[in-house]
Amino acid sequence: RPPLGITALGAYAPARVISNADFEARLETNAEWIESRTGIRERRFAAEDEFTSDVGVGAVRDLLARDPDALSEVDAVICATVSPDALMPSTAALIAMQVGLTGVAAFDLSTACSGFVYGLSVAQGLILAGTARRVLVVGAEALSKVVDQDDRNTAILFGDGAGAAVVGPVPQGYGFQQFVLGADGAGGSSLYIRCAATKLPGGFEMAPGVGMNGREVFKFAVRVLGDSGNEVLAKTGLTSRDVDWVVPHQANIRIIEAANERFGVPMSRTVVNVDRYGNTSSATVPLALREALDDGRIQEGHQLLLVAFGGGLSWAAGTMRW
Ligand code: ACO
Fold it and tell me: Where do the segments described as ACP-binding lie (predicted)?
């Protein structure tokens, strides 16, 4: 049986650029504070009528522009998102319909910023079980629609975007090696997106928007990125010296730097684009991967380490040879 990996990859970011200075007019904040605390200079916001399924379809269309046959043999679609068009139907079903995959399996996966890496592992499982031949994994978010734009603690952090990958057979010596997935609901109240009525460990709330304890999330993120990165490298039989590129979840440049120290890979071998897109949750890893492939940093045969953390709290790390 051939190994499994990513056989096609696309990405999309909405056209509307929101700079740090754009927040100064309506929030008590300043561009310098945002950049120095987070590393973010600008992010993209979807148009008023552009929702997560549309952003996700943008990434699939990019994938198809690069490889028109990429969706043949796809018989399952997973959309990793925490900003779905609706709680029901799944955003995956809406994306599948728009790209001509009507009738295939489709479901959403809710592990926040870990969602894309989780999705790759779930796709691998569906194929290994014989349920699917190839799986389309989309990480798509329109977080600008769910974040309270009057809350300076969260509004400045997030952006909109999507990535789409087809998972399927790849030649020997390439593709996925190991995954490490985890979650701890005890940290659920450190980072959450409210429902109309929301119950969390410790109580319930009735209000929209993102709730976040930034310092708690920061500490959790550094620890879990470091630990899960080291764990997946050990599981693969690799050390940090074997890693050509780390592709981390892009939440905050300081989190990435601190986590890198924990697994001992220099920033010169780490893909960073949080400065231009902010935190696009499940879309950050495929957006960063696509960018580093397009500019030639990541090349065939390179050893990659993917690491992500998010609401749940959750984490996901994976090793793969590109
Ligand atoms: N502009 C100006 N001041 C601000 C802003 C803002 N936008 N936001 C907060 N402040 C203030 C705070 O109120 C605080 O004031 P105080 O000292 O009077 O209370 C001060 O700035 C310092 O706040 P800290 O929380 O200490 O700042 P910190 O250096 O921790 O940075 C940040 C805050 C950027 C949120 C950081 O904690 C962080 O990045 N945490 C992780 C958040 C994250 O990654 N979330 C997404 C997770 S991924 C997912 O699943 C979606």
Answer: 250-254
At 10, the pLDDT band (50, 70, 90 cuts) reads very high
Catalytically active residues, by annotation? 113, 249, 279
Any atom of ligand 1 within 6 Å of the Cβ of 310: yes
**Sequence-distant (≥ 6) Cβ neighbours of residue 179 within 8 angstroms:** 117, 120, 121, 124, 232, 316, 317, 318
Q: State the pTM of this model.
A: 0.95
Interval between CA 198 and ligand 1 midpoint (Å): 23
> From ligand 1's centre to the CA of 17, what distance in Å?
22
State the sign of the Cα–Cα–Cα–Cα dihedral 89, 90, 95, 96: negative
Domains present along the chain, CATH in parentheses: 4-169 (3.40.47.10), 175-321 (3.40.47.10)
Nearest residue to 143 (alpha-carbon basis) of 151, 132, 134? 151
ipTM value, please give it. 0.90
Note the pLDDT tens digit of each residue in 27-82: 999 999 999 999 999 999 999 999 999 999 999 999 999 999 999 999 999 999 99
Q: Which two tokens stand for residue 202?
A: 């410790």
Residue appearing with tokens 């109240």:
189
C-alpha distances (whole Å) from 104 to each of 131, 220, 227 are 11, 37, 36
